[in-house]
């Protein structure tokens, strides 16, 4: 590459060049081999120059040379780079393993746990009901659902601002199942239990078939667990007991979910975090310089030097062993700085601490830190995000609590009927047609009564009286007819009226509306 396109970038400056663009040993290096020494590198480059003295480097060729990895899961030619990370069983990994096993039990148990006879969480899309902690909400609970969603979103933003991507590395189901269920199965069938990495030779054939069979069984179980969050355990148990021919739609849904999970954990894997999940892209907005991240300390680690520390010139603590890269489940080099692909799994911390212990250097070259802490700036416990976000969250949760506490057992809305605004009967009375939307928000059968409070002389007729008896969650449209004398609207064409709706629990809802008639 000519000097016009040379960048004076060395290892540890936070760029991607030392990982993807060259060895970082020389100013104009474009070699991708990170394993050679400084001297070997010069010998390699000068030998190339001597072999072709009449072929000057082309700027265009240099510009078109692809990076080593456009994505950590793609090779230069665009083919898939399959990651088989090694395993570092350090202190952080042991903590994550305990958390992961507990979460696996929790994820499976939640659909089966009940409060007051109702599931802790049930997102019934067919019936359009959301049950949380034994409380059922309906699409008409607009304010409650809005406050609830805002509370969840602001909580995520606050946790990310304080603890970084702790959710991704510690609690996300994708990470929990991938790293502590499916990768251990890979290592079992590939002969790399307890260490990971490339499979041993001769581990194909029947072992590969058995591995896929285990994947299918586990994905079927996880698919049923996942569906239990949306259809409930009772309905799911009924599906399991019956023949697929008796519920083909439900069976196809279960088969589709199983297939998607099999594709995810067997093929797509870490690419779900890198490509499909938007959370990594949102972190640039949600993080600040004081947020906790897994970070490499370049002040302490640079310049890197392999083996014994050279005496002629100072060297940093990083021995350039590359262990932080080979254990990373997303295939990145943590020494390149904060990256979207980092899920804060702490594997690089364990690997680096293990190497530091072997070479007699202090642990913590890679650690939980923040960008300001790495830059040797003071910590700030109180800052804009940690003050504003909790205030907003408190206000939103207060609104949510008020909306829940003021929620009545039913919803009633009066709609004017189609056609003419009013009609004159054979007796000379004026008739208005309406429809009453009734929603039973309770978990008991309810009977409702309707009366006209004001004005006097107005007669109410329910066209289908049986519609005023609703099951739990029932939603009906009740046709109504209102009759009155023309004198009520004489001179102005309308007058104000009040419809009173009562249920069996003494809840009352008043609806003000206008009745129309001749002037």
From TrEMBL:
The record's GO CC annotations read: plasma membrane
Ranges of Low complexity composition bias in the record: 48-58
Chain ranges passing through the membrane: 98-115, 143-168, 208-230, 250-268, 386-404
SUPFAM superfamilies per the record? 4Fe-4S ferredoxins
Q: Which InterPro entries match?
A: 4Fe4S_Fe-S-bd, 4Fe4S_Fe_S_CS, Cyt_c_oxidase_cbb3_FixG, Electron_Trans/Redox, FixG_C, Ig-like_fold
Q: What Pfam families does the record tag this protein with? A: Fer4_18, Fer4_5, FixG_C
Q: What are the recorded GO MF terms, alphabetically?
A: 4 iron, 4 sulfur cluster binding; metal ion binding
Sorted UniProt keywords: 4Fe-4S, Electron transport, Iron, Iron-sulfur, Membrane, Metal-binding, Transmembrane, Transmembrane helix, Transport
Region feature Disordered, mapped onto this chain: 32-61
Q: Where is the composition biased (Basic and acidic residues)?
A: 33-47
Note whether Lyase occurs among the keywords. Answer: no
What is the protein name stated in its UniProt record? Answer: Cytochrome c oxidase accessory protein FixG
Give the organism the record lists.
Answer: Aporhodopirellula rubra
